[in-house]
TrEMBL record:
Keywords: Repeat, Secreted, Signal. Residues 31-134, 140-247 form the Gnk2-homologous domain. The keyword Secreted applies. InterPro entries: CRR_secretory_protein, GNK2, GNK2_sf. This is Gnk2-homologous domain-containing protein. GO terms for cellular component: extracellular region. It comes from Gossypium davidsonii. Residues 1-25 form the signal peptide. PROSITE patterns: GNK2 (PS51473). Pfam families: Stress-antifung. It is found in: Secreted. Belongs to the cysteine-rich repeat secretory protein family.
């Protein structure tokens, strides 16, 4: 029995929509903030610095190796040397990490077309370049803030629980684990609310410098995010984020995020195939 053309169209449309949805979800990293530094000066078109910067940026597109989601490259010499680092969140899969960095790489040149120093933050990564040495150096500026517009009910209790959680995670992140200088955790506030937090430093900085950077970021929470259900502070060498909803992956690196997506897709296609057989026969 020939299958009705309308059913054929429905089946093919559902499969196509599923694949497109999955592809879009993987290919659109979430932009957070950026900064084009005026203090670092500008470069002129076709200058030696721009040549070095372009050569350096192309290295990120070609590379496939990294250490804990951390990349660093240099190109050129002297005042025309271009230096860049990139850091992925410790819970990001390898594919999400690589996709995020390449998106950040391209977008930062568009947003800061002639600045010698610039930085961009995405949800899954940070990307930065400059004309001075940055590897192994803890730097605070530039800084960005973001916050959840909703307020907590009991500010004092929330702040006390949040402060304790962030201090514990600062010790964990600065000490370094298998994922680099990265830590996540949660704590309860009363019987029905949980605070989730994520802290990270670039793994090239020393333990004492990571701890200092995170402590300064935590110190800015009352400025931007006091009494809010969530907030984040990003700096050149570290970042922190907290929220009452879990926003990070429980698995890390290649341990399951991409495999979960593949499993879900296979289950969906299997279900659609069963529908196809049911209508066809």
């Amino acid at each position: 029995m020939a299958m009705d053309l309308s059913l054929q169209f429905l089946f093919s449309s559902l499969v196509t929509a599923s694949l497109v949805t999955l592809t879009v979800a993987q290919q659109q990293p979430l932009y957070v903030d950026h900064s084009c530094s005026e203090s670092g000066g500008n470069f002129t078109r076709n200058s030696t610095y721009e040549t070095n910067l372009n050569r350096l940026l192309s290295s990120f597109f070609r590379t496939t190796t990294h250490e804990n989601g951390f990349y660093h490259f240099s190109s050129g010499q002297g005042s025309d040397m271009a230096n860049a680092i990139a850091l992925c969140r410790g819970d990001a899969s390898s594919s999400d990490c690589f996709n995020c960095i390449n998106s950040a790489n391209a977008e930062l040149r568009d947003r800061c077309p002639n600045q010698r120093e610039a930085i961009i933050w995405y949800d899954y990564c940070m990307f930065r370049y400059t004309n001075h040495s940055i590897l192994g150096k803890m730097e605070i500026n530039p800084i960005f803030y973001k916050w959840n517009e909703n307020n907590v009910r009991s500010v004092a209790a929330f702040n006390q629980a949040l402060g304790s959680l962030l201090n514990n995670l600062t010790n964990m992140a600065s000490s370094g684990i298998s994922l680099g200088k990265f830590a996540t955790g949660n704590t309860r506030v009363g019987p029905s609310q949980t605070i989730y937090a994520l802290l990270q430093c670039t793994p090239d900085v020393k333990q004492i410098d990571c701890s200092s950077c995170l402590s300064q970021a935590i110190g800015l929470i009352p400025v931007c995010c006091n009494g809010k259900q969530g907030g984040r502070v990003g700096m050149a060498s570290c970042n922190i984020r907290f929220d009452i909803e879990r926003f990070y992956n429980l698995t890390a690196a290649d341990s399951g995020t991409m495999e979960i997506r593949v499993i879900h897709l296979k289950l969906l296609l299997s279900y659609l195939y069963l529908l196809f057989l049911l209508f066809y026969f």
